[in-house]
Amino acid sequence: MSNHIGEPGHGNSPAAWTAVVIMLVGFTVGTVAFFFDVPAVVWASAGLVVVGLLVGWGMAKAGYGVGGAKTLGRAKTTAKEH
User: Fold this and answer.
1) Average pLDDT of the chain?
2) Which InterPro entries has this protein been placed in (predicted)?
3) Which of 22, 20, 21, 41 is nearest to 31 (CA)?
């Protein structure tokens, strides 16, 4: 069921995509390092996941989040083109 009234945007923003990509790389590297029993890399990749979270939060605060000031201009331009 979809409710379009007050829809949060589901993270479709540069901040969300950047955070997800960084965290996905962290999880992937951590999984491979865990398989090969390299604990230092597992912990480093856990730190990379936290970095991804912080980067996403920082980008959202800088205006690149859903409804952010730096993403609204592009959305308005795209809407006018169609």
Assistant:
1) 85
2) DUF6704
3) 41
**Model pLDDT, residue 41:** 98
| The three-state (H, E, C) secondary structure of the chain, written as one string | CCCCCCCCCCCCCHHHHHHHHHHHHHHHHHHHHHHCCCHHHHHHHHHHHHHHHHHHHHHHHHHHCCCCHHHHHHHHHHHHHC
CA–CA distance, 63 with 45 (Å, rounded to integer): 27
What residue ranges do the domains of the chain occupy? 14-81
The span from the CA of 63 to the CA of 29, in Å, is: 29
